[in-house]
Give the backbone structure.
Amino acid sequence: MDISFLGGPRPQRGVGVIAPFDFALDRELWRWVPDEVSLHLTRTPFVPVEVSLDLARLVSEHETLGDGVRTLTAVAPEVVAYACTSGSFVGGIAGERAMCEAMTRAGAIPAVTTSGALLEALAELGIRRVALVTPYTVSVTRALEEYVAEAGAVVTGCAFMGLTRHIWKVPYRDVADMARRAVRRHADALFISCTNLPTYDVIPQLEAELRIPVLSANQVTMWAALRRLGTRAVGPYQALIDPAARIDPAARSGPVLPDVPDVPEQEQQ
């Protein structure tokens, strides 16, 4: 049978991804990526530490990042993304910029991080007031709040889960519940932190309910990396990747929430 008419596989553009050793959502990352782009993933070395500020520092050391970039050079990606939120905000804005510089030096290619991509997304959407959802402990959550505040955004509310492991097992219903608790005061957007927390399918539903843009760690990471390639992330109707879904900030009426008892601005599940 002559199959020469098929012409062979389509040319692919590559995005290199450095993820922590416990990252379990490869499939979710792929869902953001158009057909002409391939992801090339590598992981940081295992360390026997639970999710914490200590772990965030260990998986974001410059030597570790450099090793990850060099591992990816054989497949010649056009951009490299560090897919870890806590690892990229633990050193503040200066620390995040230094991480990008270290990755670029190791591979001579553009580099992005999840936390840097978050600030880029907030700027793209004109967001000044943001609510946060995290699966983290209180100390890691506080560090995220400080990072966002350092960038000039106001954190209007925050809900966290207090988890130190198995974050990828959290169901969508728990993510949605925490989102509703975080958005108790007016916010221009919601950010759901942690690349190991499933969010792909819940984003459009939450945007429809809360009437504000909903950002997630994997979403902003892929959006920023693909932006460097001059292409767009794919996914169901949502503000970050579809300009048609964006609402003028002045026209936002705020979320429609059920009547529930007031909860503390910080709530641990």
Remarks:
- The longest strand covers residues 13-19.
